[in-house]
């Protein structure tokens, strides 16, 4: 029983470390308003309606104000985080 528990804990730790590593890589490609990406870096107004494919994306209508907290840099600068 304890061996199974040890294996589950090890698997959990490995999973956590992998997610940290992927977050670190993504953060190297982000431009933010501050170190923690908590301060808005710009305020934009939507020029078109957008309905995201799932809950990870913002939905907005033309004319709505969006606060931008980070933008991906490098190849695709069209991906922003905001509210």
UniProtKB/TrEMBL annotation:
<dbReference type="GO" id="GO:0005789">
    <property type="term" value="C:endoplasmic reticulum membrane"/>
</dbReference>
<dbReference type="Pfam" id="PF07653">
    <property type="entry name" value="SH3_2"/>
</dbReference>
<keyword id="KW-0175">Coiled coil</keyword>
<dbReference type="GO" id="GO:0009306">
    <property type="term" value="P:protein secretion"/>
</dbReference>
<keyword id="KW-0732">Signal</keyword>
<dbReference type="GO" id="GO:0035459">
    <property type="term" value="P:vesicle cargo loading"/>
</dbReference>
<keyword id="KW-0325">Glycoprotein</keyword>
<keyword id="KW-0728">SH3 domain</keyword>
<keyword id="KW-0256">Endoplasmic reticulum</keyword>
<dbReference type="InterPro" id="IPR001452">
    <property type="entry name" value="SH3_domain"/>
</dbReference>
<dbReference type="InterPro" id="IPR036028">
    <property type="entry name" value="SH3-like_dom_sf"/>
</dbReference>
<dbReference type="GO" id="GO:0006888">
    <property type="term" value="P:endoplasmic reticulum to Golgi vesicle-mediated transport"/>
</dbReference>
<feature type="signal peptide">
    <location>
        <begin position="1"/>
        <end position="22"/>
    </location>
</feature>
<protein>
    <submittedName>
        <fullName>MIA2 protein</fullName>
    </submittedName>
</protein>
<dbReference type="InterPro" id="IPR051500">
    <property type="entry name" value="cTAGE_MIA/OTOR"/>
</dbReference>
<feature type="domain" description="SH3">
    <location>
        <begin position="39"/>
        <end position="83"/>
    </location>
</feature>
<dbReference type="GO" id="GO:0070971">
    <property type="term" value="C:endoplasmic reticulum exit site"/>
</dbReference>
